[in-house]
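Need residues for this backbone.
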C-alpha cells in the first residue's frame, strides 16, 4: 500500500520505479536515487546540465504566494547540486472556473521570482481541467548548466566531513501551519510567536544557502519530507556512509517548538523545505558557516559523516539508530486545520 499522502515510500520506489529507468545512458551522471535532489547529464563539450522536475501541491494557504513557492521549491533542488538555476518550464493546471485574475496573480509572481533569480521561462502548458480542487503545479522543470567539478549531490559525502544545518528544523511545517492556523495559534501561543512562525513561509528556499556553500561543500541536500533527521539519513544512505548527529547541537527556535508542540508533531521529523544540510571537510566547515552568516543565513555544525553506524545522540547521551522517516507528521496536522475550518 502506498502512503495516502506525500512521496512514494522507499520500498515502493526500490521495487517499482528504480528497476525501470528506461534505456541506460552513460551521459547520465546522476539519476534517480533516494536523497538526490536533481539529475545531472554530461554534455558533449564536457559541461553538465542539471535538471529537476517537481510538482507543487496547491494548498489553500500557499495561494497568496503560489508563484513564489513554485519557483523556489523547484529551483532549490538545482542549487543543491551546486549549479545556478537558469531555465524553467512549467505545467500549470487550474480548476474549471478559475478567474483570469487568479492566473495573472500566479503568473506575475512566477515571472518576478524568475527575473530576480536570473531564470528564463522557456515553455510549458497552462489549462483548466476537472478533478482539480486548487491551482496545481503539475510539474515544474528547472535546468542549470555548469561544470562536473561543481556538482555537490547528497551522495558525495565523505567520512570525516562535518555536517552543517542552515536555519533550523521544520521550516515548512512551521510556516504553513502558522499561516493556515493563525487565529487559533495566536490564541494558544500568542500573536508574537505566531507572527514569527508565519515569517518562515519565505524561508522555504535554499537557493541562496546552496549557492553560497557550494564552492566549499562536498554534498548538499534540502530537508523536505521527513524533515531534518530524514534528510540526514538520506545523505548517509546515498553516500553509503555512517553519520553521527547530536540533538543538543540542533537549535529549535521558540516559535518552531511552540507551533510543533501545539500540533503534537516532532520538529526534527516534520517537513522542512528551506533547511539545507551540507557535508564538508572540517577545514572548510567554519568558512561555510561564516559565508552563510555574511548572507544573513544562520548555520550550525551538528555532527559528522563517519564510516560507521548511523546514530542520533539524544541530549541525555542516549544513542539511537538513525532510520528513515516513513510518515511525516505534518500532513495529519495540516489536514486537521482544514477539518476545523
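Answer:
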Amino acid at each position: 500500500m502506498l502512503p495516502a499522502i506525500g512521496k512514494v515510500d522507499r520500498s515502493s520506489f526500490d521495487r517499482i520505479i528504480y528497476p525501470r529507468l528506461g534505456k541506460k545512458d552513460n551521459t547520465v551522471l546522476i539519476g534517480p536515487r533516494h536523497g538526490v535532489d536533481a539529475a545531472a547529464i554530461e554534455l558533449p563539450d564536457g559541461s553538465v546540465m542539471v535538471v529537476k522536475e517537481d510538482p507543487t501541491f496547491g494548498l489553500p494557504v500557499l495561494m497568496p504566494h503560489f508563484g513564489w513557492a513554485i519557483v523556489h521549491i523547484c529551483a532549490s533542488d538545482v542549487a543543491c547540486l551546486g549549479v545556478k538555476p537558469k531555465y524553467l518550464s512549467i505545467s500549470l493546471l487550474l480548476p474549471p472556473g478559475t478567474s483570469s485574475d487568479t492566473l495573472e496573480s500566479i503568473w506575475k509572481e512566477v515571472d518576478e521570482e524568475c527575473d530576480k533569480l536570473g531564470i528564463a521561462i522557456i515553455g510549458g502548458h497552462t489549462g483548466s481541467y476537472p478533478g482539480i480542487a486548487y491551482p496545481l503545479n503539475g510539474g515544474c522543470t528547472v535546468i542549470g548548466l555548469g561544470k562536473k567539478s561543481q556538482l555537490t549531490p547528497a551522495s558525495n559525502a565523505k567520512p570525516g566531513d562535518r555536517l552543517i544545518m542552515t536555519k533550523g528544523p521544520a521550516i515548512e511545517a512551521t510556516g504553513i501551519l502558522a499561516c493556515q492556523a493563525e487565529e487559533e495559534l495566536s490564541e494558544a501561543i500568542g500573536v508574537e510567536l505566531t507572527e514569527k512562525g508565519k515569517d518562515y513561509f519565505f524561508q522555504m528556499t535554499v537557493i541562496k544557502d546552496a549557492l553560497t556553500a557550494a564552492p566549499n561543500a562536498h554534498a548538499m541536500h534540502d530537508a523536505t519530507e521527513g524533515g531534518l533527521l530524514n534528510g540526514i539519513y538520506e545523505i548517509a544512505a546515498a553516500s553509503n556512509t555512517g553519520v553521527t548527529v547530536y540533538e543538543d547541537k540542533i537549535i529549535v527556535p521558540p516559535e518552531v517548538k511552540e507551533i510543533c508542540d501545539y500540533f503534537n508533531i516532532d520538529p526534527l521529523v516534520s517537513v522542512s523545505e528551506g533547511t539545507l544540510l551540507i557535508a564538508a571537510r572540517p577545514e572548510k566547515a567554519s568558512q561555510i558557516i561564516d559565508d552563510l552568516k555574511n548572507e544573513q543565513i544562520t548555520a550550525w555544525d551538528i555532527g559528522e559523516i563517519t564510516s560507521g553506524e548511523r546514530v542520533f545522540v539524544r541530549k541525555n547521551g542516549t544513542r539511537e539508530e538513525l532510520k528513515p522517516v516513513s510518515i511525516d507528521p505534518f500532513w495529519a496536522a495540516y489536514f486537521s486545520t482544514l477539518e476545523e475550518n
